[in-house]
Structures are given as C-alpha cells and as structure tokens.
Amino acid sequence: MSRLGLFLVGALALGLTACGGPEQAEDGTEPQMASAQQELTQYCGLNCPSGQHPTTYLCSSSCGSFCTNTNNAVQCDTNAGSSFTSCGTTCPSPYHVTSTYGSYNCSKTIPYLSGNNTVICSL
Q1: Whole-number Å distance between alpha carbons of 28 and 13
Q2: What value does the mean pLDDT of the chain take?
Q3: Rg (CA), the chain
Q4: How far is CA 96 from CA 2, 19, 110, in A?
Q5: CA dist., res. 75 & res. 61, Å (int)
Q6: Which SS3 state, helix, strand or coil, does residue 3 take?
Q7: Which of 50-54, 59-63, 116-120 has the lowest mean pLDDT?
Q8: Is 44 helix (H, G, I), strand (E, B) or coil?
Q9: What secondary structure letter does DSSP report for 63?
Q10: How far apart are CA 15 and CA 45, in angstroms?
Q11: 3-state SS track over 70-116
Q12: 50: which DSSP letter?
C-alpha cells in the first residue's frame, strides 16, 4: 500500500477513535436504526396489486423487453400510515391528494416528460 493509502487508513482509524466510532447500547446490544426501512416489491408491468401504490417506474432487464420509450416495471409499497407518496394523480380510498408535483422516478415514459405525476396521499 502506498504511503498516502497508509496515511488515509491511519487518519480514518484515528478519526473513528476520536469520535467514539459506532457505540453500543448500555445493555451491549447493537444500535438500532431510527426508523424501519420500507420493503418495496417490484413487478413487471406498470400496475400495482390492490392495496399497494406505485413509488417508482423503472426499466428492468428481468421483465424482458428493452426499454426504448416506456419503462417496463414498477416498485410498489403498501397503502399504510397517515400519509404516503405515490406515483400518479389520484390516491386510493380512503386517502386524498394533499399535494402534487413532477418526479423523474414517477415517469412511465423515457425520457421524463414534464408535468405533475406524483401525489402525496393523506387520510
């Protein structure tokens, strides 16, 4: 390893030591994330099953066709909580639209066309 590489590794180790590095809880368990990560499910096509909403449209090689003008897959999340962000212009019942905006991730077409394609849904 070069001198610069050794210097950087040493500086990183010193920095972690000075800052305390990752801490363990008093009971010795590993620290927990502040919030749980969401589990997104990916489907071929551009529709989510009942009870779920689209969060991203994408091109997936596992869905067969090469994406020229349109994405071929969707990531979906469960309709839950007091609010969530969804691709589209409407919200599933009993949620209602509280805000709209344009997002590259919610574009079904390639390239992204301007316009509102994302909503925030709230109870």
Answers
A1: 22
A2: 76
A3: 22
A4: 59, 45, 28
A5: 14
A6: helix
A7: 59-63
A8: strand
A9: G
A10: 48
A11: ECCEEEEEECCCCEEEEECCCCCCCCEEEEEECCHHHCCECCCCCCC
A12: T
- Bridge partners, 53 (sequence order): 77
Rounded average pLDDT over 64-92: 93
Q: Which structure tokens are listed for 111?
A: 């390239």
Nearest to 109 by CA among 53, 70, 59, 57: 70
Neighbours of 95 (CB within 10 A): 20
What whole-number distance in Å separates Cα of residue 119 and Cα of residue 40? 18
Taking every pair of Cα atoms in the chain, the longest distance, rounded to a whole number of angstroms, is 62
The pLDDT-based confidence of 1 (bands split at 50, 70, 90) is very low
48: helix, coil or strand?
coil
Please state the φ and ψ torsions of residue 106, each to the nearest 5 degrees. Answer: -100, 15
Average pLDDT over residues 83-108: 95
pLDDT digits 0-9 by tens, 5-24: 433 334 434 343 343 433 33
